[in-house]
Design goal:
There is one protein chain. Helix content is 37%, strand content 16%. The chain is α/β, with parallel strands linked by helices.
């Protein structure tokens, strides 16, 4: 099975989905990742005195390591402006997402739920554009496209100092546990 994860920033895959990705890969699935931005606007850059360009390059290099560690079938990191997805024409983002779905031909597409976990607008824009592209493509012309899934949490991890939106357990129709081996990756 081919599974395509789509998130807006480098590290969005690391706050939970990475464990699922590792488990799925170990189960024999092909895992793909599309990241819409290089994550250059993160405030952590000030700690290093880096420009947004330098931060974007550093995070891009980190994503190359993520791809190796998770043994992804393929990963693409785009250059949409970090923190500004809401300012872009959503058709532009949706078009790129649609092209990636057509290229990968995933059976399952995974992205953020409607609340975007943290409520950050880049997460919500990603939810909207991925959902819309999926719904437009789904049908007899693309029989490989079988499911749209939202990676979510039922409890907010104690180590996250910011607000995290959770999904009620009764709203989740597909779940699986990860093992210690998944945590090690």
């Amino acid at each position: 099975m081919r599974i395509l994860y789509i998130f807006p920033h480098p590290d969005d895959e690391s706050f939970g989905p990475a464990r699922a990705m590792a488990a799925q890969r170990r189960a024999g699935h092909e895992i793909y990742l599309l990241t819409l931005t290089r994550g250059e606007a993160t405030k952590i850059r000030h700690k290093f005195g880096w420009s947004t360009e330098e931060m974007g390059e550093a995070r891009f290099r980190e994503m190359q390591e993520v791809s190796k560690v998770l043994a992804l079938a393929d990963m693409r990191v785009l250059d949409f402006p970090d923190g500004k997805l809401k300012e872009l024409d959503p058709w532009l983002i949706e078009g790129v997402v649609r092209e990636e779905m057509l290229r990968v031909k995933p059976h399952v597409v995974v992205t953020f739920p409607i609340h975007g976990i943290s409520g950050f607008h880049d997460h919500i824009v990603t939810h909207m554009t991925v959902t819309r592209a999926y719904l437009e493509l789904r049908g007899p012309e693309h029989p490989w496209l079988q499911r749209l899934a939202y990676h979510t949490m039922v409890t907010a991890p104690a180590e996250f100092p910011w607000h995290v939106s959770v999904t009620k357990p009764e709203e989740i129709d597909c779940a699986f546990d990860v093992t210690d081996a998944d945590m090690e990756e």
